[in-house]
Design goal:
alpha/beta, Rossmann fold, 5 helices, 8 strands
């Protein structure tokens, strides 16, 4: 079993990943600004600020895998990319594999096509900045990290979030940076995203790669 640290471990995606990994017997640590109302058994919860390097270092050191499940909004709106730069540097120094919860807008509709993020005309304007900042991780930041850092950027299908939770089907489909096109138009629940996410961690078949999960 692996030692897995989930940074942002009480958020929508992060808490689902924590639950799935713990259920499989992994040694899980969840770092977040606030502690959960209903802690998951056998999970170590650490309350702290992901923008604090000492806090990040203590959580990443000794792990086998670090999962970044942070959102580019709220307290991290202006420092999101800087925080991930620190996470990547610390993971690289510690020899820890980095998995990142991404967004659907960083995917492509077809091989070689522009990413969805290049045209946000159908998205409310107030969301444009956070979408672009989130996509910048895979477009610019992660590919520019040292080759010694092993990372995987995992995008969910387009309709993913607490406002559209979906149901657990116990299945998922895996694609690369081209969006999987489900018959129902594109969605995945948090439990099934976590199912695929932890499968990716356990199988270890992808390296410095962008993948996506959908029903």
């Amino acid at each position: 079993m692996s030692r897995i640290t989930v940074i942002g471990g009480t958020g929508y995606a992060g808490s689902a990943i924590v639950a799935e990994a713990a259920a499989r017997g992994h040694q899980v640590t969840a770092l977040s600004r606030s502690l959960p109302d209903a802690p998951i058994p056998n999970v170590t919860y650490v309350q702290g600020d992901a923008a604090d390097e000492a806090t990040l270092s203590a959580s990443i050191e000794g792990a086998d895998v670090a999962v970044g499940a942070l959102a580019p909004r709220g307290p991290l709106a202006g420092t999101f990319r800087d925080v991930y730069s620190t996470i990547a540097r610390l993971a690289d120094a510690a020899g820890v594999v980095l998995f990142v919860v991404g967004g659907a807008s960083s995917l492509r509709p077809a091989p070689g096509a522009d990413r969805f993020v290049t045209d946000l005309s159908h998205i409310p304007a107030e969301l444009h900045d956070e979408i672009r900042v989130g996509a910048a991780l895979i477009i610019e930041d992660l590919p520019a990290t040292p080759a010694t850092l092993d990372w995987v950027f995992v995008s969910p299908a387009l309709r993913f979030g607490a406002r559209m939770p979906g149901e657990r089907l116990g299945q998922y489909r895996l694609g690369d940076d081209v969006a999987v096109q489900p018959e129902d138009g594109g969605a995945i629940s948090a439990p099934d995203y976590a199912l695929g996410f932890v499968d990716l961690i356990e199988k270890g078949d992808h390296h410095r790669a962008h993948v996506n999960l959908a029903h």
